[in-house]
Amino acid sequence: MKNKWIKIIYFLCNIIFLSCSPNILPKFNQINTLRVIALTTPTPEVSAGDTVTVTPVISDINSVTALTYTAQVCIDLGIAYGLMPTCEGNPTRQVIHTNQILTLPGIVDQWTGNADTFTFVIPSWAAMFSGKSAQDQFNGVNYLVEYILVNSNGQTVKSFRRIIVSNKTPKNINPNITDFFSNGVSMITLPVGYKVNLTSDLSASSIEAYQIKDLNNLITTDNETLSVTWMITDGETKYFRSGLGQANEYTGPMATPTGRSAYIFALARDNRGGVTVVRKKF
User: Fold this and answer.
1) What is the number of alpha carbons within 13 Å of residue 66 lying toward its C-beta?
2) Residue 13: in which H helix or E strand, if any?
3) Which residues are CB-contacts of 58 (< 8 A; sequence separation ≥ 6)?
4) Is 115 helix (H, G, I), strand (E, B) or coil?
């Protein structure tokens, strides 16, 4: 009887946890479906009233059809407290575009790379900081960007990012990354059938010291942490992410992809919302 119950429990556990098995989980950094890789901006921290330009980095590697997007922005009313990351129903919502047809990255790039930009204006100081404490105004209030990407196959992907709006200076800037390397050399060919070490030119010079104000209006200083996230269409990486100065092992595909290019992205991030993307096409 005891063995029977053990078998039943084991069976139920398999049902509950099968979809979470590491062997069948889709790999986070594999780009093989409609994806929004990042929403980039010239600076991740701005002032009230500033104009912000967003460049989505997307991929629809298996699609040759048209894509459309919807973009809307709003003051974050409490994602950190459990609210859904959406501007729907938010009284501060601004609709930027609805079902706008994309022209970039285009079929030649398999819709993988920088998409059409869009621009909006951050609300005024009074609107952004109404009812906010001196601590909030200094540390920053989140402004939400919501981006909805749709292809003609009926697939939809929703993505968002938060932009920090503060009254302090200096403000956060994006990490500086311009290239990544295969075994120490700027990567220009896809390693078909063998392994290489991926590194980047992200350096400690991108680490910024920044200030935080506490509830008593006392200011302390801390340093950013930096990392690189690797996104790939083909092959396999040992890690999704590598720390500053760390290498990541990449195993190329056994054969070059048929009928399309292969892509690798290095996304340099800081822990305050900054992101810079480098794309390579092979």
Assistant:
1) 7
2) helix 2-17
3) 34, 35, 36, 37, 67, 105, 111, 112, 113, 115, 149
4) coil
Measure the CA–CA gap between 263 and 282, rounded to whole angstroms: 6
Report the distance separating Cα 85 and Cα 57, nearest Å: 19
- Give the pLDDT confidence of 159-194 residue by residue, as tens digits: 999 999 999 999 999 999 999 999 999 999 999 999
DSSP state of 30: B
CA distances (Å), origin 18, targets 23, 33, 167, 218: 10, 22, 48, 49
Over the stretch 217-228, which tens digit does the pLDDT of each residue have?
A: 999 999 999 999
Burial of 149 (0-12, 13-18, 19+ CB in 10 A): buried
112 closest CA partner among 157, 59, 64 = 59
What are the tokens at 149? 């990407």
pTM above 0.70, yes or no: yes
Report in angstroms the alpha-carbon separations of 24 from 27, 32, 183, 275. 9, 15, 30, 29
**Angstrom distance (rounded) from CA 112 to CA 234:** 13
Q: Cα(207)–Cα(187) distance, rounded to whole angstroms?
A: 25
Cα–Cα distance between 115 and 119 in angstroms, integer?
13
With residue 136 as reference, give the H or E element that holds it: helix 134-139
* Residue 38 token pair: 């990042």
**C-alpha to C-alpha distance for 68 and 98, rounded to whole angstroms:** 8
CA angle 169, 171, 177 (to 5 degrees): 150
Residue written as token pair 């429990």? 9
Report the DSSP pairing between strands 45-46 and 156-165.
Answer: parallel
